[in-house]
Fold this sequence. Notes:
By secondary structure, the chain is of the alpha+beta class.
Amino acid sequence: METFLSRYRNLSVLLLLIVAQLLLLAYQVKSNQDVRLIRVWAVTAVTPFARLVEWVRDGTGGLISDYILLRDVRNENKALREELGRTRVENYFLKAELAAADRVKALQDAQVKMPSKTLIASVIGTGTGSNSRVVYINRGSTAGIKRSMAVITPEGIVGKVIAAYPTASLVMLVTEQNFAAGVISQKNGVRGILRGQGTSVLTVEQILNESKVEQGEWFYTTGEDRIFPRGLPVGQVKLARPGRNFMEVQIQPSGLASGIDEVLVVIDGVHGEIPPPGTPPSPGVQILPAPPKAGPAEGAAATDPASPDTAAATHPAAQPPSPAAAEQRTDADRLKEKYRRIGEAQNHVYGAGRRSPDFTKAPPPPGPPPAQNPAAGQPGATTTAPAQPPAAPAAKPKPDTPGATERSKPPVGTIPPGRP
């Protein structure tokens, strides 16, 4: 520095004088905003250094606040995540329990409406094989479960019990290949044998190609297999087409549609109607309501209003229906009369008990009442014309005379005198 000053002394002095002069001028001169130039120059020169210092200070302060003062934020954040996970799991289990409670309530409602005596059970396990079609339920022989009992849901049949243990039971599902049950269609009354195929679709066998089975038609149990009560829904027809020897009918089971977490085990089955009361008809199928029940007098009057039998039936002291009216009775009427006589013989009231009467012990059908002689004044005689006088037999022509039988034939409903 001394060498530079001593060597360039004049120039250095000149530069110092110029700088001093500029400073004095800047001090004296003001800008248009009434600010001295020296202040403007000083602020402009110091601003970059001030920005650098502020940036260093902010970075240092952020580092201290983020990594030193807030050292527990990471642990708090981790605890919040764990609590959120537990809350989600609890919410999932609460939803599952609520859904199970709804299913149990639906089963209880169906249990009350169902005439058969049932027991609610829950599925606790499945078979070990990959293609297994069996499940375990939490009810066993101690609860009254026996082998070959039907397992159902309100939507349809599920399977049957194939083994009963003290605390659990093994149930074969309808999709198992060894499963079979008797079924009947809703509209046309076509009977067949329901079989599982190891898949989600069932088949109905032994249906002739001439039979009429429509797509979408419902099938119900017939009760002929002595396992499932009559009238339980099985499913809707998914495919129906003629085959080589029999029709190919595939059914989508309705009992497995909504899951089988809870089921009903039929302890004491009662046969129902086909279709069950309140069941809507199949798509495109129109079913009329049952005709009104007609009494014996109405049935006799409907045959021939002008006949003497009709006049006798409409009389205040109406008699049993005539043979002509009895011949017009259908098989359903005779079967109903048979069941009525069985119930009266065994003191059974239909619909009032869990057990059905013994249909093998049918009482003999009532015979026709013996004819009475109205001339003897005995009650019960069925006559519509006065008796012939005692002299009538003397005027009766001989049988060998042509047309004698037709001329001497008494009026309808009259018993000739002298005949027992």
